[in-house]
Structure formats: structure tokens, C-alpha cells
Automatic annotation (TrEMBL):
The chain crosses the membrane at residues 55-75. Residues 78-147 form the YetF C-terminal domain. It is found in: Cell membrane. Belongs to the UPF0702 family. Its main location: membrane. This is DUF421 domain-containing protein. It comes from the Bacteria.
Length: 151
């Protein structure tokens, strides 16, 4: 039972850590960040199982994490308000060509990163952006003035 409790605590701490990491960070991990998360998982596993190398201990810890993830997904689906609290809401970064610098700062998104993503979406300058929204997934959706005039 000790492994289940420690797995549940680790699950909550890892969930909080990924939320604190920010959406854009989770949206596209660099190679180093990916390796860091994998190593973090290995370190957490050792703490959960207290160096228990048995198959039963490892499976019990993994099963606990899977069950908690399934419960969290079900709760997000069943209660939409909880889902918004757990996953976050979309955030407007640019509206009618005007940057929301507070939102960019709060989400730790630099102007260089936003410019790069806009260029990848075929947008040359901010003035042509009607809306840029940071989705809960970490991706940024761009809506341009031209797209609105075509509708």
C-alpha cells in the first residue's frame, strides 16, 4: 500500500510541475527538455518504489499512475469546469495586431518565439494578426485579418 500512496503523491507533484512549466514549454519540448523529463521519471520511480526492483512493485506503481491519469481524464470530461481548471483556458496573446505583453510574460513566451511561430504560419507582421490564441495544449492558433475578410 505504501507504493500506491507514494505513486499518488508523485503523480500530483508531476502534474503540478508540468503545469508550472508552462504551456509553450510543454507544447514543443527541446531534446534536452525531453531527456530531462525522462530522467525525472526515472528518479521519481526510484523514490516511489524505494529501490524495490520487483516486477510487482514496478507494475503497482505504473498501474497507480495509469489509474490516476484515467480518473483525471474522466473527471475533465464529466465536469467541464473542472477540466478548464485542470487543463487551463485559451489565452489571447495578440488582438487586432496589438500584443498583450502581460499575457506573453505570464506564459513565458518571448517575442522571438512568437515571431518565429507567426512566420511559420505565413504571417509577416503582427498588424495582420486578428487573433493569436495560446491553446491549452501549448499550440498557438493564428487568425489573420485576410482570413476574416474572405469569410
Amino acid at each position: 500500500m505504501d507504493i500506491v500512496i507514494r505513486a499518488a503523491v508523485a503523480f500530483i507533484i508531476l502534474w503540478l510541475a508540468t503545469r508550472a512549466a508552462g504551456r509553450s514549454t510543454l507544447g514543443e519540448l527541446s531534446s534536452f527538455e525531453l531527456v530531462l523529463f525522462v530522467v525525472l521519471g526515472d528518479l521519481v520511480q526510484q523514490g516511489i518504489t524505494m529501490e524495490d526492483r520487483s516486477l510487482v512493485g514496478s507494475l503497482l506503481a505504473a498501474f497507480t499512475m495509469i489509474v490516476l491519469a484515467a480518473i483525471l481524464n474522466y473527471a475533465n470530461m464529466r465536469w467541464p469546469k473542472l477540466g478548464k481548471l485542470m487543463q487551463g483556458r485559451p489565452i489571447v496573446l495578440v488582438r487586432d495586431g496589438v500584443l498583450d505583453r502581460k499575457a506573453l510574460h505570464a506564459e513565458r513566451i518571448g517575442l522571438d518565439e512568437l515571431s518565429m511561430l507567426a512566420r511559420q504560419a505565413g504571417i509577416e507582421n503582427y498588424s495582420s494578426i486578428r487573433l493569436a490564441i495560446l491553446e491549452a495544449s501549448g499550440k498557438i492558433s493564428f487568425f489573420t485579418q485576410e482570413a476574416q475578410s474572405r469569410s
